[in-house]
Please model this.
Amino acid sequence: MPLKSKLGNIALIFAVICLFSAFIFLYIKITSRYILKISVDQVGSKIAINDKYFSDNSFENRLPKGNYTIVVTKEGFLDFKRDVYLNKNTDVKVILLEKIDSQSITSASVDGLRPYSFSKTSVVNENTLGIDTFTGNLIMLRNTGFDVIYKGKVNKFSYRNPFTVIVDSMKKNVLILKNILTNEVKEIPYNNSELINALSITPDLKNIILISDYNVKTNKSTLYSLDLNTTTVNKIGETKATDLQFIDNNMIAMFISADYLDRGTLQITDRSLGKIYYTDNCNKFLVSPTGEFILLQLSNKIKIIDTTDYVPVSYNSEAKDIAVWEGRGNAVIVFRNSPSGVQFAQIQIGNSEEPIFNVIPSLTNEKVIQIYGVSGGYLYFQNSKGENLVAKLY
Model:
């Protein structure tokens, strides 16, 4: 073969190789891009990615694989910041928290005694519900008294507005589902309902997750999922947890009872119990209304955990404080018993300033033993005498 033809063939082969390589490079570049979708619950918000402004209210685009920092801002609201490693299509839902002056509540006045005592309470959407230990009824607290939500012998309940699921010890093999807005009541078949240790309604209001059927030999219970539409029950797995609260539709905060040192364990896991994402010690935990934060309490220490990266935020107390979420979950009310009386402070999430504790004038000789909840500007609590009090927060 003439030299000229050989050179021509080599050049052709080289060109084909270059073209093929370019095609592979382009294919990899295209297939290494993923959809990043951001939606914000507040109109008028600004979305920036890696310090570059992109859009208002929502964002959706295909971006190269890699690390991105999302910042969402709006006047009057706390800045939202999240780091995302984009290696798959990702949907980020942003709930902006309204700014509250951390010292806007500086006083409280006791509004009198109330004839109830709670064994369990739940605060959602400014409503405080609890089981009245005198009657067994499920009641909703008001600043002037209370409303009976359900009459019966309530053993356990879960509340996610507008639904509450009730275990009534007088009704075997059923769960009671009540809409507190319409007063509609529905009985859901469930065998051995008396063996339920804890239950929680999922945020999408489609399922109830239950801890039930405790086994003495294994020291474990079984986690079940009950579909509210079909009423079918599916076994998820076994757990040592005795209580649970949802962070979102997939992530669950599960509590393992305190040991002889009065120290319990919090585990954050996915709904299938397939992976544990975070573990910490506490006596008590409260997931914020938005699911973005968890309040942990262990003997003489309180800390607030961000559920996006599980690191402490805002406030880390070494005092013997009692704390509850206030409002939408962007502030915490912390109470402290002192020689001068009951003190309290309002702490805004994201505010690194040391809180100022204020004495409640009418509680100078009192001690707060249990906080039932803070809703509608009122504090519901029990003092050291076992009396139930209501205080207006100013």
